[in-house]
Specification:
This protein is an alpha+beta fold. It has helices at 20-30, 44-51, 71-83, 169-178, 197-207; strands at 14-15, 18-19, 35-40, 60-65, 88-91, 95-97, 114-119, 131-133, 136-138, 146-153, 182-187, 191-193. Helix content is 25%, strand content 25%.
Length: 210
């Protein structure tokens, strides 16, 4: 997202006159989530200043501060002390969606380490990530779908990742999926990965009705 992120963290880039993170916080609040944790590294103090403690959204926001970007699994492992002992939902900050987040409360099956929301493959990621076979996520199959960045996880999934270390989420998911311990769903509603200045500009124009 450079040069846009040179002076602004990705989560605060605006679409429709509002930071993309604020759209997500509002959606989560509308679905009844009250305790949120945001992890950040690059220009993180700006995120804390913009979103505050979450009171204006009707939620409480805690912050997991990383000295450097730790990738998804590293960031989650570092934030675990703030997340409690039970399962939790995690959502990438750089997406726009109408997914009904309240569904995540009951999505994680007994014995599963994770539940993933999969979507149709966007033009920029035609190869997909995972297959979905009778509600289970598989590493291969006739049709691959794209991981949306929305999931539910048990802390045990991150047992091998030390706090403050860099680690990617995909290898953990693939290992758990190989053992049949990842469930999933195929969401066909609105989902946009805001990963480039062009896609951000397109979303901004749409939300502004241009």
């Amino acid at each position: 997202m450079r040069p846009l992120t040179d002076a602004t963290p990705k989560a605060l880039l605006a679409a429709g006159g509002k930071p993309i993170a604020a759209w997500l916080v509002e959606r989560l609040a509308a679905e009844g989530f009250r305790e949120l944790v945001l992890n950040h590294a690059h220009l993180g103090s700006m995120i804390e200043e913009a979103l505050g403690d979450g009171a204006r959204f009707g939620v409480h926001i805690g912050y997991s501060r990383e000295p450097e970007a730790l990738e998804t699994a590293g960031g989650i492992a570092t934030a675990l002390p703030l997340l409690g002992a039970g399962f939790f939902a995690a959502v990438n900050a750089d997406l726009f969606t109408d997914y009904p987040f309240g569904r995540l409360r009951t999505a994680l099956a007994a014995g599963a380490l994770a539940h993933l929301v999969l979507v149709d493959n966007p033009a920029h990621h035609p190869g997909g990530d995972f297959a979905l076979v009778e509600g289970r996520v598989a590493n291969s199959g006739e049709r691959l779908l794209t991981f949306s960045g929305i999931g539910v996880y048990r802390p045990e999934l991150f047992a091998g990742v030390g706090a403050g270390t860099r680690a990617r989420l995909a290898p953990l998911l693939r290992e758990a999926a190989a053992r049949g311990r990842v469930t999933g769903e195929h969401y066909r509603g609105r989902w946009t990965d805001i990963g480039t200045p062009e896609r951000l500009a397109a979303l901004d124009a749409e939300l502004r009705g241009a």
